[in-house]
Design a protein that fits this description.
398 residues; two-stranded antiparallel sheet; 18% strand; alpha/beta; single chain
Length: 398
Amino acid sequence: MNRVYVIGVGMTKFEKPGGREGWDYPAMARESGTNALTDAGIAYDKVQQAYAGYCYGDSCSGHRAVYELGLTGIPVFNVNSNCSTGSSAMYLAAQAIRGGLADCTLAIGFEKMQPGSLGSTYDDREPPMQRHLLAMAELREIAFPPAPWMFGAAGLEHHEKYGSTPEHMVQIAVKNHRHSVNNPYAQFQNSYTADEIKSAKMVYAAAELTRPMCSPTSDGSGAAILASERFVEEHDLAGQAIEIVGQSLVTDVPGTFERNSLISLVGADMSRTAAQRVYEQAQIGPEDIDVIELHDCFAANELLTYEALGLAAEGEAHKLIDAGDTTYGGRWVVNPSGGLISKGHPLGATGLAQTAELTWQLRGSADKRQVDGAKVALAHNIGLGGSVVVTAYRPAER
């Protein structure tokens, strides 16, 4: 298989829905896509295929978005996979290069969202998440909105089985909001005390889940230009290229429904399987990673993902928080961007924003967010219904 490199990244600032007046998805894609091309130092006519991710939009919205960058007749593929949409688009763009079908591809994601909790678009057919929701309802009394209930209930299961507490979730939110202060692309750039987070508006009372512990709906876009080793050499891009040294996309596995576990139902088994495959591909282990962007749609999911990625043994994720091991000065820096909780969560763009952050980290250009000596990075992006994409990066050999 051919080696795959990220040669350019770009993103917009993530905004509160409607916060930038008149800002529609074509303009979002133009901004992030142009930034990625400029970063790569290439013209759009070098791109041979484009994969456009979004969840809220009509068929061929991806075409309309990509057309803002040019009309070159290339294949454009529309990708929709819930919250893992952006990384799924990137997985496909990388796969085209890995398989020798293209030398330069574009992955772009965008979202124009409505304020408030996520809702269903269609009420005349079975929801894709119905099987998950029914299985969860057998284990824990259902609450609304569904998303915070699902992840909050999984967090409660961790408390009951392993002794973590709501305070650990609060500390995750404190950390990520603190990190976001230095991210000019983040929707929120405010630091909060633990007391401020605990006293904020309650979203799911049973898990003591408050608003600052939840990712917001957002408008925004992210993009990445991927290239083959031949393309990198021909265009003298090794100095800025970041290699994808491992990548795995995993959908629901038997354990999702067979374990009788809320933690499994929100994707822990998918995440664990994907991470193990990536470690094997990259010939690394969790101990080799310096910086991680993971899917903290809710603070509980960050806690659960520590174990799924192998940063902690089963039932011991909260010990990382107690030891300060997931922030600057610890064993790993997790979500230096502020994560979804602070940076925002425009579904189609989230995975590509992770790519942008980690590319900047490995180039040493993340400004005040820079993780000293970062050489290996890991991204984790999950969408229920469902799929997860885990990707490992390191700078190209020079």
